Give the backbone structure.
Amino acid sequence: MDKLIIEGGRPLHGEVCISGAKNAALPIIAATLLTGGEHVLTNVPDLRDTRTMLSLLAEMGVRHRRDGSTLSIDSSDITEAEVSYDLVKTMRASVLVLGPLLARLGRAKVSLPGGCAIGARPINFHISGFQRLGVTCRLEHGYVEAFAAGRLQGNSVYFDIPSVTGTENILMAAVLAEGDTIIKNAAREPEVTNLVDTLTAMGASIEGRGTAELIVHGVDRLHPASVAIIADRIEAGTYLIAAAATGGEVVVSGCRPDHLPALLEKLAEVGVDIVTVDNHVTVRADPISRARLKGVDIKTMPYPGYPTDLQAQIMSLMCLCDGMSVIKETIFENRFMHVAELRRLGADIRIEGNTAAVRGLGPGGFNGARVMATDLRASSSLVIGGLAAAGRTEISRIYHLERGYENLVEKLCAVGARVWKETD
Ligand code: EPU
């Protein structure tokens, strides 16, 4: 199994170019199931998760071709409408094929995802949303079997919590339904908006783009489209935090600063210098000014609030600041798995329920150690910790990182980090 070795304590300097967003690419790849013909997607990151989604579609008879970051997907022939446990257990986002398969074929069978490293993560909102559109869902032998007699029927669907993939699944199911569907308390994440734009380019009729109420006017048919995946705001945020944590100066280019409102505000509050020009963000926290960085409080919230997918990373930075920081995780119930590993680097963190109290170590900071990655974002907080730590850090189980960070080692080396992979 591969591990990542980091010789830390070196400020990062240079430019990092951001890849396409994993969490936008996954639903958009699934959306190509809605109609036959050749779809062209650009800026698609080559990650373990995007590969999993493509092999899942390949098992259904969908063909694809990759040329750099451009993917051509031809979903003219769908021979299967089933996704096995083996695939779903490696990637929960596999459930995103339910919506488009129901819209196109009126049936789908997908393994129910189990709990995962960050929480129980049920899909009850997806299922009750499909039922509102006239779908019958049966849970049997660990599978969701869904079918509809004829076309799905538009209806109102309300989410108790704005679920990202829930909103995406219902959107994809509703675009070919008969009549109108109103999704209330919809997720407003930029990845959802990227999907709305994709569906619109395919001929769907959707009002309320970027708001918590999406109105879908069902259409009779769709056509293939050419669409660009947005830049990955979580990858961008991870490099911004890494630059601040190492006391370096990094230009994060090809990103969407407007998709990072909460993080940029928080970094400024911490005392990091930030300059935003078009699609570039320059972050500067030289080693001397790092000594003056101060802990701030963070509460994760649905977009445009502070993203849960950047909670672990900012916690690493808070460990290096002066003073206390209180971090409250409101989205997932078990997303503090990185804390025990950060403690191995020297962190002083107390947890009570969904709240972590971080006592900043100040400029003394972390000391390198052997740590273990537990999920994707927890892993990236350990990378940030290792980059800032004095000495050598070894991170095992880095397959988690490969799910969501394209060319991580190459990008870090290009900004002066000493980092490499080794195989045990
Ligand atoms: N929830 C339910 N029932 C449901 C659906 C969600 O109770 O049927 C709850 C969840 O347990 C959670 C909350 O609603 O407490 C919000 O979860 P959401 O459904 O929005 O999460 P998701 O769609 O499963 C996506 C991202 C996650 C990201 C979350 C929150 C994708 C493929 N995944 O998950 O990304 O953390 O939204 O922003 O888009 C990651 O990239 O590392 C990652 C975990």
Q: What stands out?
A: The chain has a mean pLDDT of 95. Residues 23, 26, 93, 119, 121-126, 161, 163-166, 187, 191, 308-309, 331-332, 376-377, 404 surround EPU (CB under 6 Å).
